[in-house]
């Protein structure tokens, strides 16, 4: 009886252990950082250097699609030789269209390697005629010393 109980416990532990070993990783939910490539649909502020580094530049963009939708994007570029830890907030203000109001998106903390440009995309709002955005970029820290901001209207 004791042997049988031990073998059942061992079998149960093996099943649980194999489930943990094969579990799939969590999927990132937007907004997360991704590669960006701008074109004529993008209306952006000029790049501005972060207050802590001339090599970390960022801008706020409004992107419009052919269906009349629009979204805000925080774009960050690292022209230096060292990686930086970034985190962002994107506040959008829609004053025209179906989705009028203010919306905030938190861009996950991520490492921005040297030579890379990444964007954090807010939600696309269909039929938006007037949208503006304020971007907040934190670099290598979480307090106001590590914060720079930018705004754009499109």
What does this structure look like?
This protein is mainly beta and 154 residues long. It has one domain (30-153): Immunoglobulin-like, CATH 2.60.40. It has 1 helix and 10 strands. It has one helix at residues 2-21, and strands spanning 33-35, 42-44, 48-50, 53-64, 70-78, 84-96, 101-112, 117-121, 130-139, 147-153. The strands form 2 sheets. Strands 1, 2, 3, 4, 5 and 8 form a 6-stranded antiparallel beta sheet that branches. It has a 4-stranded antiparallel beta sheet with strand order 7-6-9-10, with no helix packed on it. The relative contact order is 0.23.
Topology of this structure?
Elements: H1 2-21, E1 33-35, E2 42-44, E3 48-50, E4 53-64, E5 70-78, E6 84-96, E7 101-112, E8 117-121, E9 130-139, E10 147-153
Antiparallel strand pairs: 1-8, 2-4, 3-4, 4-5, 5-8, 6-7, 6-9, 9-10
In short:
With 154 residues, this protein is mainly β. Helices cover 13% and strands 50% of the residues.
Task: Give the tags.
154 residues; mainly beta; Immunoglobulin-like; 6-stranded antiparallel sheet; 4-stranded antiparallel sheet; 1 helix; 10 strands; 13% helix
CATH architecture annotation = Sandwich
Q: Give the number of helices.
A: 1
Query: What Rg do the Cα atoms give?
Result: 22 Å
Structural class: mainly beta
Mean pLDDT: 80
SSE ordering: HEEEEEEEEEE
Low-confidence stretches: 1-29
How many domains? The number is 1
What is the count of β-strands? Answer: 10
- Which shape, going by the Cα principal axes? globular
The CATH topology corresponds to Immunoglobulin-like
Q: Roughly what fraction of the amino acids lie in strands?
A: over 45%
Share of helical residues: 10-25%
Give the termini distance in whole angstroms. 75 Å
